[in-house]
Amino acid sequence: MTATQPLVATQSFSHGTIECSDMAKTRRFLGEFLGVDVVRPLPEAQYLWKGGPWSVVCVCVEGDAKIQGQQNHFKLSVRTAAEVDDAHEAAQVHRDDFGIREITPVKDDGPFRAFRLLDQDGSWWEITTLNQAHYDRLFEQGDHKPA
Amino acid sequence: MTAVQQVADISVEPIIQPTSIVCGTFVTKDLTRARSMCENVLGLECVSPEPGVFLARERGHKPGEALHGKPYWVLEARQAETIDVPQEMLNHWGVFVDSQAAVDEAHKRVDAAKAEYGLGRVQKPRFRHGSYAFYFVDADSNWWEVEYRTPDLLYTTIRERGDQVHDEQA
After folding, report:
1. CA-to-CA distance for A5 and B59, rounded, in angstroms?
2. What are the respective helix, strand and coil percentages of chain B, to the nearest 5?
3. CB-nearest partner of B24 from A16, A45, A146
4. B151 Cβ partners below 8 Å, 6+ apart?
5. How far are the Cα atoms of A116, A124, B122 from residue B71, in angstroms, in the given order?
6. What is residue B55's three-state secondary structure?
7. Which among B49, B73, B61, B60 is positioned nearest to A131, based on CA atoms?
8. Tens digit of pLDDT for each residue in A92-133?
9. Within B60-132, where are the H helices?
10. Do B55 and A59 touch (CB under 8 A)?
11. Is A38 helix (H, G, I), strand (E, B) or coil?
12. Is the Cβ of A50 closer than 8 Å to some Cβ of chain B?
C-alpha cells in the first residue's frame, strides 16, 4: 500500500456490469440456473447480487449484447467440489433451455475445482470452490517473493 | 411437460446455489501500471500472490480494521499480451465515495493525473438514475465509475424495495 493519499476516497466497491438483450430471459437464467438474487428497479436495468453488498448491474441493450472473452468473467463461489460437478452436469443438461453458448471442462487448480460457462448474453461465469477464505489468506500473505 | 415447464418448476430451488459472487476479473498489458492505478488513483488494497496477477479489494478488511471479517469483493487483474475484447463504458467497475463533493474532488484530481497513470477519457460528473458519478477509462480499456448515492438509492436499499418494473410495464 502506498503512503500517499489516493486520488479517489473510495469507501467500497459498488458494482460491476453485464449486458443483456432480453430482460426476462436473462432473469430466468440468473435466478433459476445461476442462483443469484435479482431485482429490477428500472426498465432498462436489473441488479443482481449474492453474498455481499456489491451488485452486478445488468443493462439491457438494443440488439445483441457484447460477447466477452474469458479474460473478463465473474466467479461464483460454491461450497463443495461435488457442487461444481453437479453444476457442470446441469449446464450441459439445461444448455438449450437457458441458451448457454459454451461450457469449459471442469478443472482442478490446486485445492480448487471450477469450470466456466458463456451465457446467452455473452457473459462468462466461473463456478468455483474458491472462496473468500482463500483471498483472506492471499491478502494476509502479501506479495509473492521472487525465488 | 415441456422443458420450459420443467425448468419453471425448479425456480424455487435454483440449479446452482452459490454462496457469493466472490470475484470479477479484468486484464492489463502492464500489471505494474494497472496496480499503481488501483492503489494510487482508486485507493484499493492490492496484493500480488503470484507473477502476472494482482488482486484488489476495498481498504479496511485487514485484521484489526473496521471491516475485518465482513464480506468483500475481489477484482483479479491478469497480465495479458493482448486485450482480446476491448471494454466499453457499459462494461465498468464502480466504487463508492461518501458525498457529491467527494465525486467532484475525485474528478478534479483524476483528470489532472491522466498522463501520470496513462488514463484515457475522464468524463465530467453527472446525475444519472439517482447517482452522481463520473467515468474514466484506463490504458487497457477498462472503465471505472466513481459514484455517490444517497442512502435511499444505495443498491442494498433498492434490493429491499423489490421489483419496481415488471415486464408488462417495460
Report:
1. 13
2. 25, 30, 45
3. A16
4. B157
5. 23, 22, 30
6. strand
7. B73
8. 999 999 999 999 999 999 999 999 999 999 999 999 999 999
9. 100-112, 114-117
10. no
11. strand
12. yes
- The residue assigned the cell 476491448 is B86
Nearest to A124, CA basis, from B147, B24, B77: B24
- The ipTM assigned to this model is 0.95
Grid cell, residue A24, equals: 426476462
B147 contacts: CB under 8 Å, gap ≥ 6: A14, B94, B95, B96, B97, B103, B131, B132, B133
Q: Give the pLDDT confidence of A2-57 residue by residue, as tens digits.
A: 457 999 999 999 999 999 999 999 999 999 999 999 999 999 999 999 999 999 99
What amino acid is encoded at B163 in this protein? D
Hunting for cell 448474453 — which residue is that? A121
Picking from A8, A16, A41, the nearest residue to B42 by CB comes out as A8
Question: A97 and chain B: CB distance < 8 Å anywhere?
Answer: yes
Beta-carbon separation of B21 and A36 below 8 A: yes
pTM of the entire structure? 0.93
Of B158, B54, B97, B164, the C-alpha closest to A53 is B158
Q: Residue holding cell 418448476?
A: B9
Cell digits of residue B74 = 475481489
What are the chain A neighbours of B98 within 8 Å (beta carbons)? 9, 11
What pLDDT score was predicted for residue A146?
Answer: 78
Q: Are A120 and A98 in contact (CB under 8 A)?
A: yes
Per-residue model confidence as pLDDT tens digits over B29-58: 999 999 999 999 999 999 999 999 999 999
Nearest to B116 by CA among A89, A7, A67: A7
